[in-house]
């Protein structure tokens, strides 16, 4: 081997030395290195497998959660729609009931007014009838009294006739009542 003036080793020589050193290392540490590399590869594979398995579990749980969430969402929407429909139905029923009660109240008010007016007319008619009957009775009594008074004044009867007349007037009054 030739040496250069600069004092450096030639590249060919250094490669050979490196190769020799590698071979020596391979002989001394080869099996241990290979076992260590195999363990590292196995560990790497195991960690990779476990990571994949964990990722699958996370994905599966995520999918299950999304499905449950979608189911719950649709169930809640359905219940909300049912409650909304029930509320609308109840509101409609209440509106109809209110309208019906208002109509019945108005009819009852009109009927009450009609009944009240009819009752007032009937009472007024009965009062007029009673007044007419009383006026006729008073006129008849007045006429009888005048007749009796004239008879008494003209005939100058005694007390017996006067007593009979008064008894007759009292009987007539009792009969009229």
How is this fold's topology laid out?
Blueprint (H helix, E strand, L loop, with lengths): L10 H145 L3 H18 L1
Helix pairs in contact: 1-2
3D structure, described in words:
By secondary structure, this protein is mostly helical. It has one domain. It is about 90% helix and about 0% strand. Helix 1 runs antiparallel to helix 2. The longest helix is centred in the middle third of the chain and has 145 residues, at about 10-155. The termini are far apart. Residues about 1-5 have low confidence and may be disordered.
The biggest sheet amounts to: none
The value of Rg in angstroms is 66 Å
How many structural domains are formed by the residues? 1
Number of strands: 0
Number of helical segments with 4 or more residues: 2
The pLDDT mean sits at: 84
CA distance, first residue to last residue: 173 Å
Task: Give, in order, the helices and strands.
Answer: HH
> Would you tell me the structural class of the helices and strands?
mainly alpha
Query: Approximately what portion of the residues adopt beta-strand conformation?
Result: under 5%
Amount of helix = over 70%
Shape: rod-shaped
Enumerate the spans where pLDDT stays under 50 for 5 or more consecutive residues.
1-7
């Amino acid at each position: 081997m030739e040496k250069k003036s600069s004092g450096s080793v030639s590249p060919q020589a250094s490669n050979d030395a490196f190769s020799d050193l590698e071979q020596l290392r391979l002989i001394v540490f080869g099996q241990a290195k290979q076992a260590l590399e195999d363990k590292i590869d196995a560990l790497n594979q195991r960690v990779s497998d476990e990571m994949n398995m964990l990722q699958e579990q996370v994905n599966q749980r995520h999918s299950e959660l999304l499905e449950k969430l979608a189911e719950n969402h649709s169930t809640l929407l359905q219940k909300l729609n049912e409650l909304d429909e029930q509320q609308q139905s109840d509101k409609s029923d209440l509106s109809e009931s209110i309208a019906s009660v208002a109509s019945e109240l108005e009819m009852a008010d009109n009927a009450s007014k009609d009944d009240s007016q009819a009752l007032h007319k009937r009472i007024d008619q009965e009062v007029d009838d009673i007044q007419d009957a009383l006026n006729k009775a008073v006129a008849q009594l007045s006429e009888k009294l005048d007749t009796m008074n004239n008879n008494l004044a003209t005939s100058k009867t005694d007390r017996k006739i006067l007593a009979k007349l008064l008894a007759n007037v009292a009987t007539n009054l009792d009969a009229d009542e």
